[in-house]
Amino acid sequence: MRYASFHFSAPPPLPLMRYFLDTEFNGFGGALISLALVPEYGDQEFYVSLPLPGEIHPWVAQNVVPYLRFVPPGVDYDLSRADASRHLEAYLAPDNDPLIVADWPDDLAHFCQLLLTGPGNMIALDGLRLQLINGAGFSAAVNSKVPHNALHDARALKEFCLNGALSGVL
């Protein structure tokens, strides 16, 4: 009697998940106001807003603050910085090698600051990669449905990267 032999191969690795990042902050060098991540696949978006600083830059007061709440109720979290860090940790926990894509250095800087939970401490991550793209031709003010809202700007960045000028590059 012959027995058939079966050879199983490991399933292909999951594709690298890219998260498109945008932040809003209180003017040049100012405090983080909101942060959004939009995944390449699926609809599990991340959005958090932090307490506003006591003194708000006039441009930010006019162009950012009025649009902070223009997000779906399921992702609208107004949290302290510490709680925002924990929320970010929980969001990224299922992904062991997320790639964060941004078009502006300050976005990456604010994202990295949110990873920190205290002196010598950071949120738990298995790995993380950052990518700063050349977003020539991209303008959140032009491409976003709600300009200067981090979630809508991150969605516009995703659209630009995946369907626009950078679709073959990323």
Task: Please tell me about this protein's structure.
It contains 5 helices and 8 strands. It has 170 residues and is of the alpha/beta class. The protein is globular, with a radius of gyration of 19 Å. The relative contact order is 0.19. Residues 1-12 have low confidence and may be disordered.
Task: Give me the secondary-structure topology.
Layout lengths: L17 E8 L6 E8 L6 E4 L8 H6 L13 E2 L2 H12 L6 E4 L2 H11 E3 L2 E2 L6 E4 L7 H4 L6 H14 L7
Helix content: 25-40%
H/E element order: EEEHEHEHEEEHH
CATH architecture: 2-Layer Sandwich
The biggest sheet amounts to: 6 strands, mixed
Termini gap:
53 Å
From the spread of the alpha carbons, the general shape counts as globular
* Total tally of structural domains: 1
The CATH topology: Nucleotidyltransferase, domain 5
User: Strand share of the residues?
Assistant: 15-25%
